[in-house]
Amino acid sequence: MYNFEDYFDIKKKKKPYETPCDDLKDHLQALDMLIEAFMFFKAEKTDERRFHARGIEVGEREIASYIAAPPLERPEELRAVNVAKDMKKALEHIRSREDESIKKGIKMPVRNIADEFSLDVAELFVILMAAALRYDLKYLRMYNYIADIDTGASLNAGVADALLNFFLSLPGTKIEDCLDPAGKLCTFFLLGTDTDQATKLKQHIRLNDEAYYYLLGTEEDAIERKQAADIFFEDFSKEAAKTQKVEGGVHIRYIESSDKEDVEYALRNAAAIEGCPFHKLKVLEFYEAEKHSRQSRLFKMRICPGFVLLIHELPAREDERYNRKLKAALETTVKLLANALPGRVIHICGSSRIPFMDLPYDMAPALLKLPLPNAGERIKIWHKAVKDMGLVPEDDIDIDDIADCHALSYSAIMRLCRQAKESLFAEQKETLGREMLQELLFKLDTSDFEHLATEVEARYTWEDIYIEDSQKKRLKAACDRYRLRGRVGDKWGINKKNAYGNAVILLMYGPPGTGKTMAAQAIANEVMTPLYRVDVSQIFSKYIGETQKNLSRIFDEAARRSVVLFFDEADALFTRRTEIKDSHDKYANSDTSFLLQKVEEYNGISILATNNFQSFDPAFMRRLSYVVRFERPDENTRLAMWKNMLPAAVPMNKDIDFDFLAENFKELTGSNIKSILLAAAYMAGAEGRDVRMKDIILATRYEYEKTGRLIDSDEFGQYAIYMQE
User: Fold this and answer.
1) Which domains are present in the chain?
2) What separation, in Å, do the N-terminal and C-terminal C-alpha atoms of the chain show?
3) pTM (2 d.p.)
4) Which of 154, 366, 496, 696 is least surrounded by CB atoms within 10 angstroms?
5) What is the pLDDT of residue 583?
6) pLDDT per position as a tens digit, 204-241
7) Please, where are the H alpha helices in 208-282?
8) Concatenated DSSP letters for 316-367?
């Protein structure tokens, strides 16, 4: 039988290893010494020897030797004293070389896991036995010989138990202690055992991939250390890096943010600052993963300390079963990581508001906030993204205006610019136009108002609406206020003085058909923001509290992705409050007050349109940013409408008397004129010819009949003859 000096070169004691893998090789050399010593004793035919045989097959010779002595005279299982001494020398030799290697900056994987997980000798050698089987198939033959059976392509727990008890000086070592399902080995290293085996001693022990490749010294290939955004997150990342190093216990931090990708970028930066790994887990995916997958992730996070980020999914509004599952997944995962990663900081994100978590008091999370970038930061991000992507905006695009109007996250801006680049490439275009950019901006809209509001396609521009210049100037002033709210408001300190936010509230009133809806679309187009029409009929409820709940849902959704809210027939919502005579009046007044508060708090554009200006609550008038009256068009405006409302491609006959139309039909609004022209165009199109005066006169008659107006043939003058079908 060979001894320590036959396995190790004593001249290399206190000499550093050349590579991390050499650390594993020396430990396997110690394992060889142990296994071969055991095999030597097993092959000996000396009756006095007794073998520790829990979980392995025992031959006839051993049984005969065992039962030859009375039960009370049978000796304890054999432990080879010389082998124990040699193993002690081997481990001291290895440790001396590890110490020198560490001084040289060479990583020692076996030493690292022993120290990080506080492994005792038994636990360490169980891991080494399992690793050896993957490193060299010779160990499979050795394990089969020791067990006297075919153990399959894995290590038998009984074999491991026999080897441990052969050299450890402490009596009573049990493999069950090492294979405790809640213990370190089963949590981080060993794959699930075969539950259909008769006893634990016949379980198969397998090492997971992460642990094995770490022992080989190749873990760096799978560790993320890249830096992300170099602007906007700098302060947050530096602060996170400072507070990453903690002592004792576990520290959980929930980061409230409207974009979880921003949180990821910020923590990646912090990890890059510290030069440590970044670990990201999706909660539900981790919760539902197979045990070996979870185990590998836990091992990597434990052995490669770094920033840990849990990203949880948002709950579904109408799926309580799914929501309970999400809650259970989050709580279970947090508790698991808290126990597996002592002394670490665990970051969680996924929502702009921290969800309720039923955790022990010592796991109560600290609350951090990563707000959206302000206007100045967004401008820098936009310009950097445009430059990095090689985008060339056309002259009608003002990047600073886009940045100020749209409160987007860093990630959203980067995604949008990437999409713009790909779209330009697909369409073989060189410059980024306003139409493409607006389409991409609108696609970012993920608002879900359910039945309470519907999106309106904003087709009209300033050229399409016909109102007095002074009134149009007020509409443009409202757009400018919204466009500059960040730059001017922050630079001049105005925003700090606004207790209720930067709401832009615009009231448009006047007779029906005078262009209020078209103006709302023109405003949305100007600021390149989605337009949503609030369905007044769906807001009010006869049930107490439901109306306010609906209003909250509207404004909460609008705040998630800045949109233009359009309240048509707004007098039904913002009616003046009445004297309280019964409970109905009390709650109606409460709903009105709540609505006034929500509109004022909304940091976007709210457009109110009404035909009944007198019914508006006086208390609300002082909250309005702008009031624009829409009048019936005068003669000059009507003339422009008659001439320009149809597209230039529509063929118009020279017999059309636009001056007559503008001078005589004084009661027509812009909506009436547009309806008449469209009807006339389709009449002409049906006959395959151009539009004539006869078509317009006949369409005007139809419009009068539709609206219930009295038809006076004198008003039609010399063209009354065309009124006949």
Assistant:
1) 4-219 (no CATH), 223-369 (3.40.50), 375-429 (no CATH), 453-629 (3.40.50.300), 635-723 (1.10.8.60)
2) 120
3) 0.76
4) 496
5) 45
6) 888 998 899 999 887 554 444 455 445 577 788 888 88
7) 209-215, 234-242, 260-274
8) PTT-HHHHHHHHHHHHHHHHHHHHHSTT-EEEEESSSSPPP----GGGPPEE
